[in-house]
Design brief:
mainly alpha; three-stranded antiparallel β-sheet; globular; about 70% helix
């Protein structure tokens, strides 16, 4: 599930919620760009908010530190095992970024990034989620927005995992 071939499939990535099957279709270039723009805007607004500004004096949470340390170990292992020079260049940059975050990331940055990722993921889910026939479930009509608001939060959260994998696959496409 959620493989590169799923991402290239016009139906998209399968998402099971209980006994229901949905699909998360690949975003258009414009949707992808809009999602990244939204993420950046939410991050900046969050960092400027008074409640988050107060968190700049605190280091990131232990949970985030552990996740970053795990990401470093995984990237180091992949770097060691990889024979693809382009992949090694990418991993070198990724490792540098992870290590910089480990040294300097604050709780404010962590909170802002979490808010930004959530906004991006929800925005993409609302636009990309389709039924088994490929019909978009939500649109910007009053009815579409009402359907989105009634869509169970646990299903929205499950969809985030598929969004992450979909974005990861799109960023790793070999062409």
């Amino acid at each position: 599930m959620n493989t590169l071939s799923d991402t290239l499939d016009p139906r998209g990535v399968e998402l099971r919620v209980g006994d229901r099957v949905f699909y998360l279709r690949p975003p258009t270039t414009e949707e992808y760009d809009d999602a990244r723009s939204l993420q950046s805007t939410v991050r900046k607004r969050s960092m400027a908010s008074p409640e988050v500004k107060d968190l700049k004096a605190y280091p990131m949470s232990d949970e985030s530190r552990e996740m970053l340390e795990m990401a470093v170990k995984e990237a180091e292992a992949e770097f060691t095992e990889s024979t693809d020079e382009e992949r090694k260049v990418f991993l070198t940059g990724q490792l540098a970024s992870y290590r910089e975050m480990l040294e300097s990331r604050t709780l404010a940055e962590e909170v802002s990034e979490n808010r930004a990722s959530l906004a991006r993921d929800r925005w993409l889910t609302a636009r990309l989620l389709c039924d088994a026939d490929g019909k978009q479930l939500f649109d910007n009509t009053k009815e579409g927005v009402e359907r989105w608001n009634r869509f169970p939060i646990h299903a929205k959260d499950l969809a985030r995992l598929s969004v992450w994998r979909l974005l990861e696959n799109l960023e790793e496409l070999p062409f």
